[in-house]
Amino acid sequence: MNSDIAKSKDVTLLEILDRVLEKGVVISGDMVISVADVDLIYLGLKVLLSSVETMEQLRGSPFAGPMREAV
Amino acid sequence: MTDNQLVYLYCVANEEPKLAKAVDLAEDLYLVCHRALHAVVGEVDESEFGAEGLKRNMADLEWIKTNASAHEKVIEQAMINTDVIPFKFGTLFATDESLKMMLEQHGEEFKAILERLANKQEWGLKIYCDLEKLRTGLLSSQERILKIDNEIKSSSVGKAYLLKKKKDEMIEQTLNERINKCGRESFESLKESSCEARINRLLPKEVTEREDEMVLNSAFLVGKDKVGNFIDVVDTLKMRYEQDGLFVDCTGPWPAYNFCGLSDGRRQNE
């Protein structure tokens, strides 16, 4: 059980994100500046971050020099 | 660049809520009142929360964590002395006037929702499964698995291979049955102790950052006078499943994020 207690802070944050970003009333209308798909961003964030890292690794690799201009 | 201000909506209440004084992350809270509804709002910078800023910041996990926590904190403070309708993170208006227009348009619906939520609380229940622990438990307790184990020991190599395959299938099947039974029993028994109940999508390990697998994600709207009973049921479930590697995690009370859908098409996300 100790490990659960140690993790409780993370779990709470997860619980908050699971609600605040996913649920709650959504309204749309002319006067509302709304962000589409906020919830998807959070689920995909980890994947996104890891793909950014991958991209940066690729960029730093010897084969990924600047693209040559055509013509 | 001029830094325009936007109006960030946290929640709508039917009675004047006490605003948090010491919410360090959202200092400029105020109320916008219209048609006997009290909207808890804050001024935010357009550079941070405008379409472009928000798009940029929503790729920043630390920014999300800080601001989502602040969103929750403000609403929790407001719900101490009134019922609230929590809005989704990032609900923004250009001015107080445009927010009032929205309250004018949806006022009756909001009042109906607040009436439905009166004297009720949202509680969350997630169940996580330590698959290895559950599997190990099944291996030693299931008679048909023990039986096939004995058969394997006394069989030829070829037959043992097939039996082993059969055994693995049997284990996976039993495992799934056990998890489903736990989820179903837990959900159904808590549903009986609450006014409304819903099941949400499971979150993958990348999001939960836990070793064990989420096998149930559910939310319940519980009458305030029934909370004691609800918690008793949760404790019974906890004890029933603990030794099998099924961890029952109950949290609350929460603002009713899961139970405030609008009646028309603009309902909360499914």
How many beta-strand runs of chain B? 9
Number of strands of chain A: 1
Can you tell me the overall shape of chain B?
Answer: elongated
- The overall average pLDDT of chain B, rounded, is 88
Tell me the strand percentage band of chain B.
15-25%
Helix content of chain B: 40-55%
Task: Provide a quick synopsis of the model.
The complex is a heterodimer of chains A (71) and B (270). Chain A has 71 residues and is mainly α.
Salient structural properties:
heterodimer; A: 71 residues; mainly alpha; 2 helices; disordered N terminus; B: 270 residues; alpha+beta; Alpha-Beta Plaits; five-stranded antiparallel beta sheet; four-stranded antiparallel beta sheet; 9 helices; elongated; disordered C terminus
Plain-language structure description:
The complex is a heterodimer of chains A (71) and B (270). Chain A is mainly alpha-helical. Chain A has helices at 2-20, 38-60, and one strand at 32-33. Chain A has one domain (2-60). Chain A is 59% helix and 3% strand. Chain A is flat. Chain A starts with a helix and ends in an 11-residue tail after the last helix. Chain B has 270 residues and is of the alpha+beta class. Chain B folds into two domains: 5-118, no CATH class; 121-258, Alpha-Beta Plaits, CATH 3.30.70. Helix content of chain B is 48%, strand content 23%. Chain B contains nine helices and nine strands. Chain B has helices at 46-49, 51-57, 61-78, 96-117, 131-141, 143-153, 157-192, 205-208, 227-242, and strands spanning 5-13, 29-34, 37-45, 84-86, 92-93, 120-129, 196-199, 213-223, 246-254. In chain B, the strands form two sheets. In chain B, strands 1, 2, 3, 4 and 5 form a five-stranded antiparallel beta sheet that branches. In chain B, strands 7-8-6-9 form a four-stranded antiparallel beta sheet. In chain B, helix 6 packs antiparallel against helix 7 and helix 7 (157-192) packs antiparallel against helix 9 (227-242). Residues 264-270 of chain B have low confidence and may be disordered. Chains A and B meet through helix 1, strand 1 and helix 2 of A and helix 2, helix 3, strand 5, helix 4 and helix 8 of B. Strand 1 (32-33) of chain A pairs antiparallel with strand 5 (92-93) of chain B.
